[in-house]
Amino acid sequence: MSLLKRLEQIVILGWVNSLPMLRQPMQMVTLIIFAALPIFYMWALGGMHLLSVGLAAAMISLVSMSGTFVSGDIIFNRIWTKYQDILVASPVSPICYMLGIAVSNFISVGFGLIPFSALLLLQGKLTASNAASIFLPLGICYLSNLMLGFYLGTVINDVKTGNSLGNVLILALVYLPPVYYPLTALPDFLRFPALLIPTVSTAQIVSSALGMSTAVAEYVPMAWVVLVLSSIVFGTLTLRNVRWRER
Amino acid sequence: MDAMDYVIETEGITKIYGGKKKALDSVDMKIPRGGIFCLLGRNGAGKTTFLRIIGTQLEPTSGRATVLGYDVMKEADEIRPRIAVVPQEAKIWGFATPWDYVYSYARLRGMSDSDATQASADALKRLDLYDVKDKVGIELSGGMKQRVLVSMILVSDAELLLLDEPSIGLDPVSRRQLWSYIKGLSATGHTILLTTHYMDEAEVLADNISIIHEGKVIVNGNLQQILERNNSKTILEITGNDLTWTRAYNDADSKNGRTTIELEEEEDEIVAGILRKARQNNSKVVFRRSTLEDLFVKLVGGGEVESA
Predict the structure, then answer these.
(1) Nearest residue on chain B to A23, judged by CA atoms?
(2) Which of A15, A75, A82 to mutate to test the interface with B (most CBs of B within 10 A)?
(3) Pairing of strands B234-239, B258-263
(4) If DSSP codes are grouped into helix, strand and coil, which group holds residue B301?
(5) Cα(B82)–Cα(B61) distance, rounded to whole angstroms?
(6) Contacts by A168-171 with C-beta closer than 8 Å and gap 24+?
(7) What digits encode the pLDDT tens for the residues A168-212?
(8) A89 and B80 in contact (C-beta within 8 Å)?
(9) Short-list B103, B133, B290, CA closest to B199
(10) Is B286 exposed, middle or buried (0-12, 13-18, 19+ CB in 10 A)?
């Protein structure tokens, strides 16, 4: 099959997998609400100056949730609807399938990022000069979480377990570690282990790019290394374990 | 029959799950080109495992299988564009319409936009789904949902269609409609491999049948051949409130308020006796030829039969 046909397959699979978001936008609204909820408490308890910290964290949260929750799509298509079985016995390649799902989730993320980006823009925090420094780490963080989602979607054989694990992971990746609060709030001995979490690394890079007072510049190089390495590790883990034909 | 006349050939196909559960045990099978081939068996007999190996969705533990002349393990990429499957208990998404399903599937199989549009419209019309093509899954009946899955394989234009228990959960009218669509597919030159545990379905649809039991093929051939080979007999089927009197007959087999007695030749006197006693006990007696279901029960054991 030609490259053009493969690209068409990716777009079509991306469109098909986007249908829930397009036809039931409440799913996306719910994700945005969950990402934005802590901002309300930050603003209520800490004042306006924490708003931009919260907005940056909400973007990371949204990116992380969208990536990790891909496991649910994979398990649902494989176990519940058997759509993956239909595709296996067809000319669709596993790479096209993965990229199609990645594209659909990317569309969801794109929509979700709009309100947070707009508010940062209005605050004057997001500018043309720092946009790349903000969206590039967000993109890599998405990729890292996406690979984690693909891996979980491959190894978990139960829809409910997949959904529950996705929620637990979001707690562990976004709400507990220093994403909505500064890394410096943790005791010294916990800062390095926390920085190994891709979302925390992203938070350091993004908050530094936004010029926030909570950012610690010396952590940024380390954060980049962790972010890139985590994508490679999760990507390798996925590619080694993903099975198009079951064993 | 020439080797090219078989769409599927397997030699010693074995599948063992988790190193211990043997789902298929050295299955040798040849499935001819054209027509409908039914794989019959109880739940867990190995039908789905066999179909998934043929569909390149599952690796066998050992043995060799070719589909349309290609090896399932080494040449899966050659097989996949030439087959289409309806998996067992496949479901359609609640948010997608029949059109979304059929059109996207046609595009994924490499059709152009105009060809996919035309083929999708034709397929949905043939399966009486065109009027509901824009309704989302949650608005469709169970029969419609199943037909959406069948319309996907219809639009595929694949040579070999694999349907794994396609009528499960459908009401009697929807089942008969589905049978008619499947027969229509066969008439257009497709080869269909279908698994079922409904004997009536196999009797209506199948040109050839294999009965699979505990991972082994125990019977193979067309319906008439199978019944003849297994001594199709006349059966007396007796129903009534009190069937205790039938216990006097050695060949009587009583289950679920019904007794069946297989008649050997030259048993006119026994038949006369049964009819007399049936009249005395107000029981109803029906004469019939033994069916696939009788044979199936006999071959796979006398447990609960899973047919309707």
Answers:
(1) B95
(2) A82
(3) antiparallel
(4) coil
(5) 24
(6) A169/A68, A170/A61, A170/A64, A170/A65, A170/A68
(7) 989 999 999 999 988 888 998 999 999 999 999 999 999 999 888
(8) yes
(9) B290
(10) exposed
Mean of pLDDT values over B74-90? 93
3-class secondary structure, A117: helix
Contact at CB, A12 and B89, closer than 8 angstroms: no
Say if CB B274 and CB B238 are below 8 A apart: yes
- Tell me the CA distances in angstroms from B267 to B235, B247, B250, B262, B273, one per residue in order: 12, 17, 13, 10, 10
B268 Cβ neighbours under 8 A, 6+ residues apart: none
User: What are the structure tokens assigned to A120, written together?
Assistant: 């940062």
Which residues of chain B are within 8 Å of residue A247 when distances are taken between CB atoms?
58-59
**CB spacing of A89 vs B96 below 8 angstroms:** no
Question: B58: burial class by Cβ within 10 Å (0-12, 13-18, 19+)?
Answer: buried
DSSP-H helix ranges across chain B: 47-54, 76-79, 98-108, 113-126, 142-156, 172-187, 199-205, 223-229, 268-280, 292-300
Cβ count within 10 A of residue B208: 19
Eight-class DSSP state of B88: T
Can you name the residues that pair with B22 across neighbouring β-strands? B16
Residues 6+ apart with CB under 8 A from B183: B36, B205
Termini Cα distance of chain A: 25
Q: How far is CA B138 from CA B141, B145, B224, in A?
A: 8, 9, 42
Residues of B with CB under 8 A from a CB of A: 52, 55-59, 76, 80-81, 83-93, 95-96, 100, 104-105, 107-110, 136, 152, 156, 162
Could you tell me if A123 lies within 8 Å of chain B, comparing CB atoms?
no
Q: How many residues does chain A have?
A: 247
pLDDT at B227: 76
By the 10 Å C-beta count (0-12 exposed, 13-18 middle, 19+ buried), A39 is classed as buried
Tell me the pLDDT of chain A (247 aa) as tens digits: 788 889 999 999 999 988 888 888 888 888 888 888 998 888 888 777 788 889 999 999 999 988 888 888 899 899 999 999 999 999 999 999 999 998 888 887 888 899 999 999 998 889 999 999 999 999 999 999 999 898 888 888 888 888 888 889 899 999 999 999 888 889 989 999 999 999 999 999 999 998 887 777 888 999 999 999 999 999 998 888 888 898 8
> Residues 6 or more apart from A190 whose CB is under 8 A from it?
none
Give the mean pLDDT of B282-299: 81
Within 8 A by CB and 6+ apart from B121, the residues are: B130
For residue A13, give both structure tokens.
């699979």
Count of CB pairs separated by less than 8 Å, A with B: 85
**Looking at residue B71, what DSSP letter applies?**
E
